[in-house]
Amino acid sequence: MEYTHKPVLLDECIKALNIRPEGTYVDGTLGRAGHSREIAKRLTTGRLICIDRDSAAIEAAQERLAPWRNRVRLVHSNFSELGTVLADVEGVDGMLFDLGVSSPQLDDPERGFSYMHDAPLDMRMDRTSPLTAREAVNSWSLEELRRVLFEFGEERYAPAIARAIVKTREFRPIETTLELVEIIKSAMPPAALREKQHPAKRSFQAIRIAVNGELDALPPMLRAAADKLRPGGRLAVITFHSLEDRIVKRTLRELAQGCTCPPNFPVCVCGKKPLVRLDKPVTPRLEEVAENPRARSARLRLAEKLDRFDL
Question: What is the reported pTM?
């Protein structure tokens, strides 16, 4: 399926990365290569390293990035392995991470991400991973289901939905996305079903996050990125929901924090120096949201690697 939407916050990302033609850049969430194309076309002797855990994204990028193949390296990996992927790279001038699920993943019913189409329960970003959404909803305990729905989906009806899932699977396994949607709806009061947001949205988000381990990978990825950036190098991270945005915000603030000694200490004994300087977050323009409603909740967080002489 061809990806037709303009990548979220594209102009803002390109401006923030301040691309140098001879520089080294990383797109840690390749997706359908919308951001990568714009980075690659600005390089001459530089190089771009593109990472994605979805083999379909890597395969599609072979064609989409073909005009710049001499400056692009494609890597099938999870960004949680960023340090390993960049082990042979001396330094990086800019990194971009778009944490949203790509439109082709959402729009392909067979991937099982969507609550709008009937498909086998899957939701894996990396289809070689053993854990599917089907296995999750049919094997997790009542308490684990409740915790995942509440913590990762901020679903206020998590206890009732978890009970409904467990009750249903006592008679038959839950196999498809629309089966799960109906179970979720059956556990919610009529008023909740009339809300503008689809009743299954939060639960599907929660299960997807848990199946793919999306949040656990963020702090180590951001720390590895900051370590690998050259002085003056730029880090750009696009978040789409409050859970991941809070983690990114907190981790970047930790990386930007200097001395953590108690205020009454006469001199610093911790030796901690800030690694990055933070810029103000950026949100999409109204025109972009009108053109692409999926950009509505996006937030771009930016950091710049400090030189030791700046400290």
Answer: 0.90
